[in-house]
Amino acid sequence: MDIKYSNHFLNKLEDIFSESDYILRYEKGNFNSGYCIIHDNKVVVVNKFYTLEGKINCLLEILKSIELDADKLNPKNLKLYQELSLDH
Q1: Which residues pair with 20 in a beta bridge?
Q2: Tell me: the pLDDT tens digits for 52-81?
Q3: With contact defined as beta carbons under 8 Å apart, do 55 and 46 qualify?
């Protein structure tokens, strides 16, 4: 899958998180990897000062490292999630 670094693609990734059990937040911080995952609370925190490309790359990396309940995703988001997972 070709990754398009646009606000529209970022919104698609954020939609996947909004339908999952995970809460996505953008906050300032000096995370070594640019993000932090708090597994117990199912919270994902991404550095809000990252560029658009940086945010998208972080979200892609996070989606590949966590397990989401695919049953909660609408068909459109499920298809995107599966395409992203297969690239891994």
Answers
A1: none
A2: 999 999 999 999 999 899 899 999 999 999
A3: yes
3-state secondary structure of 48: coil
Assign 25 to helix, strand or coil: strand
Phi, psi of 64, rounded to the nearest 5 degrees: -80, -15
Q: Measured between alpha carbons, how far is 88 from 26 in angstroms, rounded to an integer?
A: 24
Please say whether the dihedral angle defined by the alpha carbons of residues 30, 32, 34 and 39, taken in this order, is positive or negative. negative
Phi-psi region of 73 (alpha: psi -120 to 50; beta: other; left: phi over 0): beta
In angstroms, the CA 1 to CA 88 distance is: 11
- Residue 17 is which amino acid? F
Give backbone dihedrals phi and psi of 14, rounded to 5 degrees, phi first: -65, -35
